[in-house]
Amino acid sequence: MPSHTEQDPPLPWSAFLDELDQAISEPIELHCIGGFVVSLLYGLPRPTGDVDYVAAIPRYRTEELEQLAGRGSKLAAKYKVHLQHVTVATMPEDYESRLKEMFPGRLKKLKILAPDAYDLVLSKLERNSPKDQGMSNISQSSPAGSQDPAGPIRKRITPKT
After folding, report:
1. Which helix (H) or strand (E) holds 120?
2. Is residue 7 part of a domain?
């Protein structure tokens, strides 16, 4: 098992991802969104019990991922977290060119990628869920190159007082 660094996910995520990495049959790239990315990449308080992903590459490995680590799997029962393939999400054009690797060098076969803060916010606009309200106020978000790349997301999830 890899040694712990500041880039490592906390438990139970680290153990869950390590075991999944060992179990998959070939390299897989996951394009992740949701609370997992918001909390672990951008450091914002958004507890979650799943890793939402919009794409698995190669795509034909989605079924394997769901069997190994989806809701109801042995890994999900063991760690109380799971993978969730999100089929209703619209990602911004060319988002793939702006993906950032989470936990680089930690996993051997599994590569966890996340959109930049702006793409993550934009992916929520079309959904128009009550928990995503306030997203239209992104005009006040951090400009590119800002010291706070999570600004657009922070504005979205910070409770108004």
Report:
1. helix 117-125
2. no
Structure tokens at 10: 């906390």
The 10s digit of each residue's pLDDT in 82-115 is 999 998 889 999 999 999 999 999 999 999 999 9
Q: Which amino acid is at 111?
A: K
pLDDT band at 45 (very low <50, low <70, confident <90, very high): confident
Give how far the C-alpha of residue 56 lies from the chain's centroid of Cα atoms, to the nearest Å: 12
Q: Which residues constitute the domain of residue 47?
A: 13-154
- How open is the CA angle 152-45-98, to the nearest 5 degrees? 45
How far from 47 is each of 26, 67, 90, CA to CA, in Å? 30, 24, 23
Paired sense of beta strands 82-85 and 110-114, if any = unpaired
Asked if the peptide bond before residue 152 counts as cis, ω within 30 degrees of 0, the response is: no
In a domain, 144, yes or no: yes
